[in-house]
Protein 1
Amino acid sequence: MKIAVFPGSFDPITLGHYDIVERAVPLFDKIIIAIGKNSQKKYMFSLEQRKEFIRKTFEKFPNVEVDDFEGLTIDYCKSKNVNFILRGLRNPADFEFEKSIAQTNRALTRENTIETIFLLTSSGKSYISSSIVREIISYGGNYQIMVPDAVRV
C-alpha cells in the first residue's frame, strides 16, 4: 500500500495545500495530512480548528485523513509505516529548503526507506502561503480567495 504523509502546520490550510493534495490523491492509496505540533510556535487557529478545516475540505476524498503529531516527521512516518513524504514547492527557495530537509530525513533513516515526493504548486496558486493568509486575516483583508470554503469563517 502506497501511503504518503503531507506534514505541516496548516495554519490555516490554503488553496495551495489543496492543490497539492488533490493532485496527489491518484498517486497514493492513502494520504495522511499530518499537523505537526511545535510548542515554540504561536498559532492563529487551534489544533482542533485546523483539523476540522482539513476534514471538511477533504471530506469527499475517502483516501485522505488528518492526524497530528509531535517530534520529527521522519519518526511519525516510521510509526505509521509510511514510505513517502509529500511536499509542495512554490518557488526555488522552497526547493532549496525542502531539499535540505529531504536529505536530512534520508540520513536519519539508515535504510533510506522514506522518499520525499515533490509536487510543484499550480502557477495560479504559487503565491499563496499560510503566513500571507494569516497576515491578511489579521488586517481584515479578503483572505477568502486563498483558502478552501471550510476556512472561510
Note: The first strand starts at residue 3 and ends at 8.
Protein 2
Amino acid sequence: MQTGVWISLAAYFLLMVGIGIYAWRKSTASSEEYMLGGRNLSPQVAALSAGASDMSGWLLLGLPGALFVSGLSQSWIAVGLSIGALLNWIIVAPRLREQTERYDNALTIPGFLGNRFPSRAGLLRLVSAIIIVIFFAVYTASGLVAGGKLFASAFGGSYMAGVLITLGIVLVYTVIGGFLAVSLTDFVQGCIMMLALVVMPIVILTTGQGGGVGQAADRLSGMDDSFLSLSTGVTAIGWISAMAWGLGYFGQPHIIVRFMAIRRVSDVPRARAVGMSWMLVSLIGAVSLGVFGRAYALRNGLEIADPETLFIVLSNLLFHPLVTGFLYAALLAAIMSTVSSQLLVSSSSLTEDIYRRLRKRPATERELVTVGRLAVLAVGLVAVVIARDPDSQVLGLVSNAWAGFGAAFGPLIILALTWPRMTGTGAVAGLITGAVTVILWIALGLNQTLLGGDGLYEIVPGFAASWIAIVLVSRAGADRGEYRAA
C-alpha cells in the first residue's frame, strides 16, 4: 500500500522542484523578479496563488477538525473569511497594485509604507519588517506542525522528521525560484487542494459505509441537536470572534503581495472572480468534510484521536493508495503553498527593508538575491524551533498569527490607500498599537475568557485600537505636510 502512496508523492515533489527550476531560469535575475515576479502574474495565477497561500494546512486539518468536534456553528469562520476576502479584492487589490508601482516601485509592504510616508520611512520599514518576521515565524510554524502531523499519522514516522522534510521541500523550490516559483506552485497546489476538497465529501457520502446524505443527517441529528445548527450554543462574542476572521485579510502580507504582482490593474476583476470562486468551493468542501466525516465516524465506530487528522485518516481508509498519495499531496500543497509564501515575504522584508537600508554602500542585485535566499533559510529554521512540540494545534497557531497581521497592518493598509490625511506618525502609531494589543490580549488570556465568559478573538480589539490610533494621531497633525496624496 505504501508504494502507491510514495509514487504519487514522489511525482508531486518532482513537479514542485521542476517548477522551481523553471522559475530560476526565467525570473531571478534581479531583486524585483525574485521578490515580485517582475509584476507579471496573470489573473488566474495571481488569484489561485493568493488563495492557496491564504488557505494553509488549516483548510484541510484545522477547519474540518473544528467542525468535526463542534458542528456547523464553526462554519461562521468560513462566512467571515469569505466576506473579508471579497472586500479585500474590492478595496485593497486595485489600489495597492497601482500605488505600490507609483510610489517608487515598492517591492514589499514595508517598502510601500516607507515610500508613502517619507518622513517616517526608516521607522516604518524597520517596525513593519520586525512584525512581519515575528508573526511569520509563528505562522510558518503552523504549516510545519501540519506537515509533522501528516508524516506521523499517515506513515507512523517521526513528527520532527515530518517537520524537517516539509521545510526541506519548500526550501528547495523557494530558494531556487523565488516569487515566480512560489506563485506557479501555488497555482498548481490550489487546483489540487480544491479537487481534493470536492472529491473527499462525495466519496464519504457515496461509499457503502458512508450511508448517503439522509443517513448522515439522521446520524448527526440523533447524536446532538446542536451539531447541525448554526446558532445553538453560539454566543454574541463567539459569533463576533468567528466573523472577525475576515478582518485579517486586509493585513496579510503574503496575500496582498499577490495584488502587487498582478500584470495590470485592469486584470483585478477577473482575478477576483477566479479567486472567490476557488475560495467558496474550497470552504464548502472543508465544511462538508468536517460534518460528513463526523457522520462517517459515528456510523462505523471510528475513533479519531486528533480531530485535525480527520482528512489524513479518511484518505487512508477510503481510497486506493495512488489516490491516497494524491490526497496527501493536496494536504502538502495546502501546507507548502502558505509556508513558501510566508518565507519569501519574510525574506523580502529582511533583505529590502533591513539589509539594503543598513548597507553603507549600494548592494548589487546578485547580492540581494543571495541575501534573500539566506533569509528564507533563517526564518525557516526559527519556525522549526517553534514547531517542535507535537501537541501544537494548527488552528491555534494560525489564529494568533492571523490576528497579529490583521490588527497591525489591516487598518494601516486600508487607510494608507484611501485616506489622504493619514500621516507617517499615525501609521507608526497604528502599526505598534495593533501588534501590541494582540500580543497583550493573548498574554492575558482574554482570547480564552473575558469577564468569566467566552473570550473575544484578539483581532477585534487589535484592529479597533489600531484604527483609532491612526485616526487620532494623524488628525493631531504633527507631520501632516509630509504625506504624498494617495
Note: The chain has 18 helices and two strands.
Protein 3
Amino acid sequence: MLTSTPIPLRAEAPVDQMQVTLMRAELAATIDRLTRVDGAHETAIPRLLLARASQMQHPVHAMHEPAFCVLAQGSKRVLLGNEVYIYDGSRYLVASQNLPVSGQVIDASPESPYLGLRLAFDAKDIAALALEFGQGDASSGSAPERGIFTGELSTTLLDPVLRLVKLLDTPEDVPALAPLISREILYRLMRSPDGRRLAQMAGVDSHSQRIAQAIGLLSQRFREPLRIDDLADAIHMSVSSLHQHFKAVTSMSPLQFQKQLRLQESRRLMIGEHLDAATAGHRVGYESQSQFNREYSRFFGLPPARDVKRLREMQLGR
C-alpha cells in the first residue's frame, strides 16, 4: 500500500547572497540575450513567459493567473486592492489564485532593463504534488490566506529557475526536461515558509478551493447582477463564510472583485474594440452611465474618454 510523506517545510537558512547575486547575473544575461526588444515573450516552454522593459511603466491592470514570478533585474510593484507588493532581484512573487491586480515596472532603464520571467501553474499541478506528499489533506480545514505573497530568493530556488530558462537553448530537450524542472520549482515553493498557501489549493472541498470556484463564477458572469445568496449556494458556503474567506484570499469583497473585473474589461473594450464609454459600460453590466464614469474615474484616475486617449497616445509613443 502506497503512503505519502508530507512535504517538510524548509527551515529558514542563511541565504548565500554572493551566490544569489552570481546566479541572478547569469539569469539576467540569459533573459537579456533571449529578449532583445521590450515586451512579454512567449517561449517554447509551455506557460513560461519572459519579460523585458527598458523604462518605467504606467500601471497595467490585469487578471493575474496562478504563477511564480522572478526578476533577474529591476523591480515591480503589484497592487491587490489597497495592498502593495514589491518584488525585485532578491524576492519572488507567487499568485495562488486568479486575482485582479495592478502591476507597474518601477525600476528599469535602457542601460539596465527590467528582466524577468513568469511561470504559470495549473491548479491540477499544485493538487497533484500536494496530495502526493500528503500536504493536501492537512490544509483542507485550514482558513484560507491571501492568494498572493512574496518570498526571499535562494540558491535552491534559483538553480532550477536558471536551468529551466537555459533549456530554451536546447529546444529538443524541452518536452522531456521542462515538466520535470517546472515540477521541481513548484516543489521548492511548497517547501518554503509560505508553501501552505499553495497547498491549500489541493485540499478536497477546502475553503480555498471553494473561493477559487467563486472567483471562477464571478470571472465568467461579472456582467450579470451579483446575487450573493446564489453565489454562496453555488459553492456550498453560507453568505457570512463566503464574505469572510473571500476577503481573506482576495483582500476585497465579491462585489468589489466584480467591479474591478467590469472596469478592466470596459477598458479593454474601449482600447481594443474602439467602443465608446457608454457602450462599453453597458456591455460590462452597468445600467447607469454616471455610475460607470464615477467608478471608472475612481479606479483608473481619469474619466473613460481621457484615460483611453492617454493610453492610445502612449501606444503611439507620443
Note: The domain at 256-315 is CATH 1.10.10 (Arc Repressor Mutant, subunit A).
Protein 4
Amino acid sequence: MSEYDVAVVGGGAAGLSAALVLVRARRRVAVIDAGQPRNAPAAHMQGFLSRDGMAPADLLAAGRAEVTGYGGRLIDGTVREITPTAPVGAAAGDAGFRVRLDDSTRLRARRVIVATGLRDEIPDIPGLAERWGRDVLHCPYCHGYEVRDRPLGVLGGSPESVDHALLIRQWSDDVTFFAHGYESTGAERQRLTARGIRVVDGIVNRVIIDGDRLAGIELDWAGMVAPHALFVRPRLVPADGLLAGLGAVVTSERTGRTSLPGIWAAGNAVDPRAQVITAAGAGSAAAIDLHADLVEEDVRAALPFSAAQEREAAAVRQNVAAV
C-alpha cells in the first residue's frame, strides 16, 4: 500500500493549488481526480488574474504538470471511502487515513484534503443541458462581458432568479426575464421595470438549437423569442459525500479545517460560490495550515520521551516480561 503525507481528493483548481504548495514543501503528495471538472463545458474562464480567457482544461493541464514536476503523483480515479486509522480518542497529531478508490486501489495518508467540487443542477428543459456553459450560462462574472450589449434572457422560477436578472442588467440594456411559472411580487416587478427588464410570463417549453447555437426559446403560449444567451441560476449541489461519510464539517472557512482532525476541505465542496481563482486561493490556504499541522506532529515525534511517557513505557515492558 502506497503511503503519503497528504492525499488530495479532487484535481481542480483548489486541489492542484493545495498540492503545489505541499510538494514545494517537500511533502509526499497524491492527487486523486475523477476527471470531471465542473467547468469542462466552458471554452474559456474569466477573471483569473494573468489567466483571463484561458481554457479551463489548459489551466488544469498546467497545474498537473507543475505538481508532477515537483514530484507529486497524479492518480486517475474516484475515491469511494476514507477511513481513519487512528484509534478512537487518539490525539489530533496521531491522525492517519486509508483511502480506497473505485478500482480497489488503496493508499495511506497522514492527512487528507477534500476538494471534490460541486455539480450544477439545472431545470429539466429540453435543449438546456446541451448548451450549458456555451450560450446557456450561469455566472455573469464569468461570461457577462463576452455577451455584453446583446439581447439576453434570464430564466425565472424562483425569487433568486429576479436578483439574477437585476445583476445581468449590468452587462446589457436588453434583458428579458422569463418567469417560467414564478409569480413575482409587485415590488419585484417594480424593480425589474425600473431597470428596463421585460417580464415574459408563461412556461419555457424548450430551448431551440440551430446548428451549434442557441436559436430561440419556445414558450407554452408563444412561438419563439431569440436572446443571444440565456442565463440560468442553477442549484449548486456540493460533492461533499466524503465529508458527510466521515462526519466532518468545516470549522474554519479561512483554513478549511474540519471537525475531524487530519481532514481539510477546500473549493466548491465547501464554498459553492467560489470561482476558480477563489477556489485556488482556498486550496493554498488549506495546504499551508495543513503543513503547519504536519510540522507539529514531526516535532512531537522527534522529541525524547517525557518522564511520564518513559514510566509508562517501562511499565509496559515490565508487564510483557512478566507474561
Note: Residues 20 and 36 are 20 Å apart (CA to CA).
